[in-house]
Amino acid sequence: MDKKAVIRNFSRYARSYDKYADVQKRAASELLESIREEGFREILEIGCGTGNYTLLLRERFKNASLKAIDISGKMIDVASEKLKDKNIEFIVADAETVDIRGDFDCITSNASFQWFSDLGKTIKKYSAAIKKDGTIHKNGLRPLIDDLDSLPFPDKEIYYKYKFLRDLPTKRIIVSRGCPYNCSYCFNHLYNEMYQGKGKFVRYRKPEKIIEEIKELKAEYPLKTVSFSSDTFTLNKKWLFEFLGLYKKELKIPFICNSRANEIDDEVAKRLAEAGCFYTSFGVEAGNERIRIEILKKNVTNQQIIDAAKHFRKYGIRYVTYNMFGLPTETLKEAFETMELNAKIKASISTPTILQPIIGTTIYKYIQDYDLFVPEFSPECMNGHYGKSPLKLQDKKEIHNLQKLAWIGIKLPITIPLIKILVKLPPNPVFGALFKLSLLYKYVESRNLSWFEMLKIGWTLRKNV
Q1: Angle at 246 between CA 241 and CA 252, to 5 degrees
Q2: Alpha carbon 15 to chain centroid distance?
Q3: Which of 45, 260, 290, 392 has its CA 20 to 30 A from that of 335?
């Protein structure tokens, strides 16, 4: 986790944070109600933010000594102004690494543990700072919301009050929550475990409500393309066909969506195309079945990937594939299989990344158990999906180069023999520049943009960065 980015973002919005912190405020009230004990004398709050929960603690435990930590000095500034003369000691520090000395009878935190790189180690540290009969209080997980249509439409004006965001021709619409699959590199299997017994994990909105939201969006803002946000838009065939039929009748605005190869057949591809789908994305991840199924736990075969691509091509749907390089146990030969499979299925665009394992996932534990992290590895060192691999790899230099050049071999298979030679060169700026060009091309194609529109976006970003 990039703690510098966390500090930067919280500090940037410290003065406006309370305007949008309704959920955090409700969670703070519920957390305080869950504390049954009284008479605490030494209280430590972890991640106090702008002090909303701190105020509740002070009002309830008037005679307690209260310390409050936050990683952002700007957030602490707001909290200090809000709670001046309340006899609270504020500390600007990373709660995960700071050396806290004390003998607390209550340590409590409202919605901050997600910012810790190693939660288990941090909890162990604070457990040592608490009195023998003291308590640690943190938010519990709420039950899942079964009826997504009971929620109001998202307040888009939060974003679209900014002209740049409002004028983007592609707008996102959430249609579902949850994913039933257990891919080792994805956080969803952790969510499934965390929310066991707390409700149905995969939930869909009613087609009519989604159409209503899109119509409202279209009436208020520029809209050329709809991007449906769903882990697996094509998972539930009954829901999908009902939605596509209504969408085709009421709107038929060009749209893009996520899909999964094992869920695609001729009928699904046909109905997607008829309703206006011009682009979809699905994960190949690795061209080698052993790695994809045994290491990544993505139970999709090469043949299912080939068949899905064939169905999409038949009905004129372009498709971007997600791919990873630098996988545990991956050889250079197996990495080339990823490029070759994508070339075989004629992927419209590919997104080659370098694996950056998420802490706590199955693949992260696998890498730890088999001592596959480089000696200098720490979670803070991971630097995005296009950065360096944190793994010990037999052909690391070549795999890094391949990740930058694979898209060329996929688009122009005739260049694959040349790429097998080029990857042996030292990493260089030319490979990096070629890869950045592919990202630009992907964005233009998958968002249904003209190059003129892309230039306008680029110019606006240039002025606002």
Answers
A1: 105
A2: 26
A3: 260
Nearest to 330 by CA among 369, 287, 371: 287
**The two structure tokens encoding residue 228:** 């449906």
**CA–CA separation, 334 and 171 (whole Å):** 37
Centroid of chain to Cα 201: 17
Phi and psi at 196, nearest 5°, equal -55, 130
381-412 burial: b if 16+ Cβ within 10 Å, else e: ebeeebebbbbebebeebbbbbbbbbbbbbbe
In the beta sheet, which residues pair with residue 350? 321
E strand segments, 148-195:
170-174, 176-177
Kindly state the tokens that stand for 295.
């290491």
- Residue that the structure tokens 């139970």 belong to: 299
pLDDT one digit per residue (tens) for the chain, 465 residues: 678 878 888 898 889 888 888 888 888 898 898 888 888 889 999 999 999 999 999 999 999 999 999 999 999 999 999 898 788 999 999 988 888 777 888 889 887 777 777 777 887 888 877 877 777 666 677 789 999 999 999 988 888 888 888 988 899 999 999 999 999 999 998 888 888 999 999 999 999 999 999 999 999 999 999 999 998 899 999 999 999 999 999 998 999 999 999 999 999 999 999 999 999 999 999 999 999 999 999 999 999 999 999 999 999 999 999 999 999 999 999 999 999 999 999 999 888 999 999 888 999 999 999 999 999 887 766 777 888 999 999 999 999 999 999 999 999 999 999 999 999 999 999 999 989 888 887 777 777 777 777 777 777 666 544
C-alpha to C-alpha distance for 311 and 314, rounded to whole angstroms: 5
Return d(Cα 342, Cα 129) in angstroms, integer. Answer: 54
CA distance 173 to 153: 10
Locus of tokens 């091309």: 441
**CA distance linking residue 249 with residue 258, whole number of Å:** 22
Residue ranges and CATH numbers for the domains of the chain are 3-138 (3.40.50.150), 148-464 (3.80.30.20)
Which parts of 230-270 are beta strand (E)? 255-258
Q: Name the 3-class secondary structure at 322.
A: strand
| Phi-psi label, residue 276: left if phi above 0, alpha if psi -120 to 50, beta otherwise | left
> Within 10 Å of residue 323's Cβ, how many Cβ atoms?
23
